[in-house]
């Protein structure tokens, strides 16, 4: 009986440890996504993603408030749809003009250079970051 109790305690401790590691990994992914966002999106969408970046007033179409994605989708963050938008698979109004550079092309060009992650990893990180900045409902 004692052996089973120790096994159960061991499994529980492993689960807690794994959850902590997973959370730390998620924090790193979100931090990487924030860095990509700051480099590629902040000028138009703003530091907090509300569409109030320093370039916003110069654009014909105002940048979207990216903190409202979840609330515009019935309380659910459409993770893979946003991934496809960021990656260029799904068109986004305003992104096809010269005013909105297609950053995913730059990501793909850079992925073979030293010090750069694969384009899809960078896009995934941006998508996780956007999910993390959603306004509270």
Describe this structure in words.
Helix 1 packs across helix 5, helix 3 packs across helix 5 and helix 4 packs across helix 5. 54% of the residues lie in helices and 0% in strands. The mean pLDDT is 82. The protein starts with a helix and ends in a 5-residue tail after the last helix. With 137 residues, the protein is mainly α. The chain contains five helices and no strands. The protein has one domain.
Summarize the SSE layout with pairings.
Elements: H1 2-40, H2 42-45, H3 79-87, H4 103-110, H5 119-132
* Beta-strand segment tally: 0
**Domain tally:** 1
Order of helical and strand elements: HHHHH
Helix fraction bin: 40-55%
Please give the alpha-carbon distance between the first and last residues.
48 Å
**Largest beta-sheet characterization:** none
SS-based structural class? mainly alpha
Which segments are poorly predicted (pLDDT under 50) over 5 or more consecutive residues? none
Radius of gyration: 19 Å
Key features?
137 residues, globular, single chain, mainly alpha
